[in-house]
Structure prediction request, 475 residues.
Amino acid sequence: MTAATADTTVSFAFAGGRAGDAPLTWGQRAIWHAIGRTRPNDHYFNIGRVLPLADRGAPVDLSRLTDALAALVLRHEALRTVVAEEGGEARQRLSGQGSAEVRVQDVADPGEAAAAADELLSSLTARRFDYADEWPVRFGAVRHAGRITHAVLGLCHLAADGHAAEVLVRDLRLLVRRGSAGPVCADTPLDLGLRQASPAGRRSGRAALDHWERGLRAAPPTMFPEPVAPPRTPRFWTGRLRSAALPRAVDAVAAAHRVSGSTVLLAASAALVAAGQGHSVAAVMPIAGNRAAGGHRTLVSTLSQDALFVLRLDEVAGPDADFTDLLADAWPAALAGYRAAAYDPADWDALLERAAAERGTEVHPYCCFNDMRLVERVGPPRPAPRPDELDLLRRRSVLDFPATQDRVACRYCLHVSGDDDELTVTLTADTAYLPPDTIHAHLRAIEEVVVNASAGHPHRLTELPALLTAARAGR
Prediction:
C-alpha cells in the first residue's frame, strides 16, 4: 500500500464475503421512506462515531487500521450492502468483495488530534450518501507522526442505527487491538429482509399495527393541528438544553416511582405537549430499538422504528393530580408501544390513510421522542439529590440553538443523550408550529417538571400550560 501524506485518501480491498439480494427490512424501509420525505437534506439521518486509538495499547499504523477495517466490512454485511430501486421497489444488494477508502488527516501537534477527528467526522457525515453506488460507511483517520490517533466512521442510517454504531466501534477497537472480535451475530439484514417479507413475518407486522390502530383512535388526529406563526427560514430549528441537574433528578423520580428514567422524560415531554396544545390525550412516537428479541443485540443494521405511546391525562383523577400521578400508567403504556414497534412501513402508511378517511382529516402524531443513551446503569443507585444541590446544578444549565434545517419530516423531535454528569436534550421543531421561544420553553419546562418532582414538589397537571407560558418569557 502506498504511504499516505497529509490529507490523503488510501484504498483497501476486502474479499470473501457472501453476496445476495433481498427486500428491504422493515427498519431499512422506514429510513428509506424518511429519506424520501427529507431529500435533499437527508444527510440529517447520517450517524457518526469517533474511536480514540492513542489512549492505550500498542501504536496503530495505517496498515494495521486498514486490515481491521477490511475485517470489519467482511464481518458486518450491512457495511457492504447498497440500496437500489428497480421498477419503483427498493431492494438491498449485498456484495462479497470490493474496495473502500480511508481519508487520512495528518496533524503536527498531538494536542490537535481530537479536534481534527471531530472536524473529519463532521465532513464525513455532512453529505448525503449515494445509496445505490456508494458503500453505506465512510472511513476516516487522524494520524500523528505515523501513529493513528483516531478512527472515524460516517454511517448511512440504512446500514446502522445508534446501537449498531456502538457495536461497530466496539468491534473495530477489538479488531485493531487483538485482530479478532469474537462471534458475530448469526442473523443478517439480508436474512431478516427475507424473513419479514414471508407470510409469517407479515402476520407479525399486522399484529403490531393493531396496537397502533387502537392507540390512534384514542388520541387527537395530530398533536400540532394548526400553525401558530409564519415559518422561519430555515424552517426547522434545533434547540438544545445541557443540564447537569436532569441526570440526578431523572434517576430520583424513576427510583421513587419504579419506572425507567426514559419513561420519566417521555411522560414529561408528552404531558407538556398535551398541555401546550390543549389536549387531554398525548400521542408520541418514541424510537424503539427492536433488539430485545431475536438475538439482535449485536446485529449491525437499522432496526429502530417508531413506537406509539399514548398517555391519557384525562384518566388521572382530580384537580390536584400532579405529574407523578401519570407515571404508573406511563410505564406499561411505553412497554406496550415498544413491543409493537416492528412492522412493515407500507402497512403503517395504509393504516394512517384509512384512519384519515374515517376521521376526515390527516392522522399522524408528528411528535417524536428518541432516548439515545445506550449505557445501562450498573451498581447501586445514587442518593436522591437535595433541593439545594439541584438549584446549584440548574444554574449551570445552558440553552442554545446549535442547528437549523430546511426540511424535517416531523413537527416535534426530542432527542436525549448524555451520561450521569449531564444530559443533553435537543428539540428539533417546525417553527410554524413551535416558534423558537416555544422550543426553548419546552426544554426549560421539561427540566423544571422533572427537577421539581425529584424534590417532592411535582407540578399539578393544571399548572403545565402556565409553566410553558412562563418559560416562553424566560422566567
